Amino acid sequence: xxxxxxxxxxxxxxxxxxxxxxxxxxxxxxxxxxxxxxxxxxxxxxxxxxxxxxxxxxxxxxxxxxxxxxxxxxxxxxxx
Length: 80
Description:
By secondary structure, the chain is α+β, with helices and mostly antiparallel strands. The protein contains three helices and two strands. The protein has a two-stranded antiparallel ribbon.
């Protein structure tokens, strides 16, 4: 298993290809995973597992990065 938090570049995604830097996207995914999984209370997966799952969902277009220009913030949302 790759350790994404220690220098391994995340796979490219739609959002990353259009704008942003890989490190920014990785930091956003880490923050999202920490916040969302903590609410669920699911501790069966490591941080790296969770990060990989989110990157796979981004790659598969099951999730996307959205930006709010007014607040200059971004978030990851499920595609419906």
